[in-house]
Write a structure and sequence with these properties.
The complex is a heterotrimer of chains A (about 280), B (about 270) and C (about 425).
Chain A (H helix, E strand, L loop, with lengths): L2 H30 L2 E4 L4 E4 L3 H8 L1 H32 L6 H13 L2 H11 L6 H5 L14 H26 L3 H9 L5 H29 L2 H6 L11 H11 L3 H32 L1
Antiparallel strand pairs in A: 1-2
Helix pairs in contact in A: 3-7, 3-9, 3-11, 4-7, 7-9, 9-12, 11-12
Chain B lengths: L4 H14 L1 H10 L20 H9 L2 H32 L5 H11 L4 H14 L6 H26 L2 H43 L2 H6 L8 H6 L9 H21 L1 H13 L2
Helix pairs in contact in B: 2-11, 3-11, 4-7, 4-8, 5-7, 7-8, 8-12
Chain C lengths: L3 H18 L11 E8 L8 H11 L3 E8 L3 H14 L6 E5 L3 H6 L12 H5 L3 H4 L3 E2 L2 E2 L2 E7 L1 E5 H6 L8 H15 L5 E4 L6 H13 L15 H16 L12 H9 L3 E6 L2 H6 L10 E4 L14 E8 L6 H11 L2 H10 L13 H6 L3 H10 L9 H16 L5 H19 L2
Helix pairs in contact in C: 9-10, 9-17, 17-18
The chains are: A mainly alpha (about 280), B mainly alpha (about 270), C alpha/beta (about 425).
Chain lengths: ~280, ~270, ~425
């Protein structure tokens, strides 16, 4: 058997699965978004761009877009800052490294539903640890439209910072110690060592982490759905939650698909930007 | 950079504090109901196993754990099985358009679930696969597959071609070279990919929530999200259920840390 | 690590075994005829349903009725039904439906047409406001099982202490709250409790406010907010209750039970609730026993008194049942005079038959029945359309935003109108 033939044979099953369950649905959802489709009542009609035209003037859509943007920017910024700090703190850890990494990764590995329930309890007005530590004030974190989004962001940052920290930590470990010894000899230490040596070497990996995390934050669904359901009053309703409600609560499969396509396009734009950046880096490197 | 025992201890203490939400949930799961609401003392006056009893005997969690385990194992097997084959083909064999296919794989890792859930839901409905393991296995496997292929293709590329060619020259042929040279070398990478795929499937919520209706077919995240409470929410029971739901992830983080970390880093650091 | 082909084969074997194991469970085909009756847990002191089902079984030898409970939340019940009925072969024969779902299920073809199987006299024996929502395209699709109506609960003792009669207008209610709170000087005594959470119950409260101000959600042609100014007033009033402290801020996250309990503990003056709460307030160990009265819902400037929402549960037969005649008989039995009488005696449920409210025997056990009758007759069903739930879930976030102060009533009405119009574009054939 020729290598080419073998190659196709080995590739085929994966391509069939992906074609059927990833590529085909990706195209189908675009097709769905161009229809009025309510399966429960057997409604299926061409709509053209009607759903998209509505989204342009739909305040609930723009609210969701704003919440998504705010959530993404705040989450990612905090994660990268916190993650880098944790990596710097972890760097030079001699003893119990495995235990340290285990404690770190625990937050990342837990199912998002578990994390949601955990934080729902932590934020509970009467029984939550947060209010207890604040001296027993009955702050209604998840019920207050102003506090709910920061509370959600806090939970998400807790859950995903370990990923960024691990990435930075691994990178830091590859930096040869001689660089710092040489710098010390030259009289540069502490902050200067950081800005001259550490930061330039860590920055590329931080950018990679930033982009991974941005894609994840844009697509995030589980945490906000289980923690707040998008409430109160839509203050934590991201585009994904809005799409879900349209699909499974109001059973508007056509309209819900349109919102899903918007999320899809947003994520793809960011992803393509990322790929371009990689190619540019690889070409330059 | 240099540190003494004190520094290491402080860092460890800081990390324990970071994991505090988790430890608080452990404490909640053994705290008696009367002391849950309102919270008056940090430590409970006594420990109780009643929440675990309720969860294991009266709730849907045992069935959900079984469902999750079955779905996760099968989808991991499927994803890694198909993914390994495809990765080797893309990494080593002259498949036409493989650069483009690989690029497509990378793009596919960014697909949002919320976009594909509606057509998949219609498909599941049309094929009568609602409440079946098959629907979730296929959905999870297909979602994990791009990442698995990308990871494994990278690992395979790291193996020097010379090794394979040497084995082939020895009269073994390509398939034997695969079996005796490549497979053992890429096995740790496959372990990493398998762990990531398993974690993804175990934690997966959206598809499981949308494709199942009956209580008996729920996976762990769905059962936890829909944990019943008639008037008041049973926080102690939910905490116990959460911890049971977290057992495989904890096991992986503690027991298979090396492979997990390798998998996480491979995707990011290689590029 | 095992060589790759062996691993692949093992994975495939695991897959096949799991596929075989993970399929649907099917019920046994032989044995006595089993009817599956799906219903929600009956709130209140006792559950009369098992006794009634045994009576039916006794009257129909060879028939077993298997009772299966639904979740407690109305939205989750609806989700359960939709998913199972959509799937094609629902594992139940008779179902308890919230009245608002009947037109939807009828339009979707999931329930049996009962028109030919229920004589007109039996239909007319129920409240008109209970039969009306069960009629779609001139056909009858479900029979009322028990009746609900929104009530204003008030503390007889507190009002009497300050010489006040139950308020007829909301303005009066607010004034009374101020008087009583000033007099009692109890910081833990709330004024008016109602359900403002973002769910169907919250929608009911908003609808009642709209009706209290003489407007409605949809006009005869189905257009939303025909009198936007009156709707705006009603919403603004609800928000003002929280802003002015007449209602505590947590009502925006409260459902029926979260409001019933504080009132039952004596910590509120007024409560908007369903009739089931009355029985719970009159239990021997209730702190407000003997001190609770019911009154019609107050009005706002442009509306009338007693514009409360009727509600309740209906019984319907699955269109895919294999025992249609028997299932219909079960429905007629459970909604019949004798069964409803038993339910009224045993549980905190109110019958859907007006005649029972004048029955001496029942009144002897429950003296509140005569008072409830006019309240039910004055009540109002929610918009009767197959798309009611879609409408409700679309508008709930808008109303919720007003109640928590995140949106102005005018804006919420504007945005809500746009959303409803968009929804209706899809629904008009």
């Amino acid at each position: 058997m020729s290598d080419r033939r073998l190659g196709w044979l080995m590739l085929a099953p994966a391509l069939v699965l992906l074609g059927g369950l990833t590529v085909y649905p990706a195209l189908w959802v675009i097709w769905l978004s161009l229809h009025y489709r309510v399966p429960v009542f057997s409604i299926s009609r061409w709509a053209g761009l009607a759903h998209y035209a509505f989204l342009v003037v739909d305040t609930r859509f723009w609210n969701a877009a704003g919440v998504t943007a705010l959530f993404t920017v705040a989450s990612v910024a905090l994660e990268c800052g916190l993650g880098l700090s944790m990596a710097l703190g972890l760097w030079g850890q001699r003893r119990a490294r495995r235990a340290a990494v285990a404690l770190l990764l625990l937050a990342w590995a837990l199912p998002s539903v578990v994390t949601a329930k955990m934080f729902e309890w932590l934020y509970h007005p009467a029984g939550g640890l947060v209010n207890f530590l604040l001296g027993g004030r009955p702050v209604n974190w998840l019920g207050d439209p102003v506090l709910a989004l920061p509370a959600l962001i806090g939970a998400d940052v807790w859950r995903t910072t370990p990923f960024v920290a691990l990435l930075c930590y691994a990178r830091l470990l590859t930096i040869p110690g001689e660089l710092y010894e040489a710098a010390e000899v030259d009289g540069a230490a502490g902050v200067q060592a950081f800005t001259r040596i550490t930061w330039p070497l860590v920055r590329p990996i931080l950018l990679v982490a930033l982009l991974f995390r941005t894609l994840d934050a844009l697509r995030a669904f589980d945490l906000m759905f289980v923690l707040t359901g998008g409430g109160p009053a839509g203050s934590t309703e991201t585009l994904t939650v809005y799409a879900y409600r349209a699909l499974f609560q109001t059973l508007q499969v056509g309209f819900g698909s349109a919102v899903g396509v918007v999320v899809f396009a947003l994520v793809m734009v960011v992803a393509v930007g990322y790929l371009r950046m990689i190619h540019r880096q690889e070409a330059g490197a | 950079m240099r540190g003494g025992r004190l520094r290491d201890g402080l860092v460890l203490a800081a990390l324990i504090l970071y994991a505090l939400p988790f430890f608080w949930q452990v404490l909640t799961s053994v705290r008696p109901d009367a002391e849950l609401l309102p919270l008056s003392h940090l430590l409970p006056s006594r420990l109780t196993a009643v929440h675990y009893e309720v969860v294991l005997r009266q709730s849907l969690m045992p069935r959900a754990l079984l469902n999750s385990l079955g779905v996760a194992l099968a989808s991991t097997g499927l994803a890694v099985g198909l993914g390994a084959l495809a990765a080797y083909a893309l990494a080593r064999l002259p498949v036409p358009g493989r650069g483009l296919i690989l690029l497509g794989m990378i793009a596919a890792t960014a697909f949002p679930q919320i976009a594909t859930v509606s057509p998949l839901y219609l498909l599941v409905r049309a094929l009568g696969l609602r409440d079946t393991w098959l629907a979730l296995i296929l959905a999870n496997a297909s979602f994990a597959l791009p990442l698995v292929i990308w990871l494994l293709a990278g690992f395979i590329r790291e193996i020097p071609r010379a090794l394979e060619e040497a084995a082939a020259v020895d009269g073994a042929g390509r398939l034997a070279a695969l079996r005796f040279v490549v497979a053992p070398l890429v096995a740790p990478g496959m372990a990493s990919a398998a762990l990531l795929a398993f974690l993804f499937s175990w934690n997966e919520f959206l598809f499981a929530y949308s494709f199942t209706a009956t209580e008996a077919s729920r996976t762990v995240p769905v059962a936890l999200a829909l944990f019943p409470g008639v008037f008041e929410v049973p926080w102690g029971d939910i905490a116990a259920a959460s911890l049971l739901a977290s057992l495989p992830p904890i096991l992986i983080v503690v027991g298979f840390q090396r492979y997990l970390v390798r998998g996480l880093l491979a995707g990011a650091l290689r590029e | 690590m095992a060589p790759r082909p062996a691993r692949a084969a093992a994975a495939l074997a695991v897959l096949l075994v799991l596929l075989a194991g993970g399929c649907h469970e099917r019920p046994p085909a032989d044995g006595p005829i089993t009817l599956v009756f799906k219903h929600a847990k009956i709130l209140g002191p006792a559950d009369p349903v098992p006794g009634l089902l045994r009576r039916f079984e006794a009257e129909h030898p060879g028939v077993r009725v298997q009772s299966e409970a639904l979740t407690w939340s109305s939205d989750e019940q609806h989700q359960f039904y939709v998913i199972n009925l959509e799937g094609g072969s629902p594992p139940f024969d008779v179902m308890m439906l919230d009245v608002i779902w009947v037109p939807e299920f009828a339009r979707a073809g999931w329930i049996l047409d009962l028109t030919a199987r229920v004589p007109a006299a039996e239909r007319d024996a129920h409240f008109a406001s209970a039969i009306e929502p069960a009629v779609q395209d001139g056909r009858l699709w479900a029979l009322p099982w028990f009746m609900n109506v929104g009530l204003l609960y008030y503390r007889k003792d507190l009002l009497a202490k300050y010489g006040l009669a139950p308020p007829e207008s909301y303005e009066e209610l607010v004034r009374q709250v101020r008087v009583v709170q000033a007099g009692e000087r109890d910081s833990r005594l709330d004024g008016y409790l109602w359900q403002g959470k973002q769910y169907e119950g919250g929608m009911v409260n908003v609808l009642e406010a709209l009706w209290a101000n003489g407007t409605r959600l949809l006009d005869e042609r189905g257009r939303p907010f025909p009198e936007p100014e009156r709707a705006r007033e009603a919403l603004a009033f609800m928000r003002s209750l929280i802003e002015n402290g007449v209602s505590p801020a947590w009502v925006t996250a409260a459902d029926e039970e979260l409001t019933r309990r504080p009132f039952g503990d004596g910590r509120a003056i007024f409560l908007r609730g369903w009739p089931y709460a009355l029985d719970l307030f009159e239990l021997p160990d209730s702190r407000v026993r003997g001190r609770v009265g019911v009154a019609p819902m107050p009005r706002l400037p442009h509306g009338r008194v007693g514009a409360a929402s009727t509600g309740g549960a209906h019984l319907a037969v699955s269109a895919r049942t294999r025992h249609a005649a028997l299932a219909v008989e079960l429905v007629r039995f459970l909604t019949g005079d004798a069964a409803q009488r038993a339910m009224t005696e045993g549980a905190a449920l109110r019958p859907s038959r007006p005649a029972l409210y004048r029955d001496a025997g029942l009144i002897a056990r429950d003296p509140t029945l005569p008072a409830l009758l006019p309240l039910i007759l004055a009540g109002h069903p929610r918009p009767i359309t197959p798309y009611y739930l879609m409408l409700s879930t679309t508008l709930q976030p808008e109303f919720s935003a007003v109640l928590v102060g995140r949106k102005s009533p005018a804006r919420a009405i504007r945005d809500g109108t746009a959303q409803v119009l968009h929804l209706q574009e899809a629904l008009t054939r």
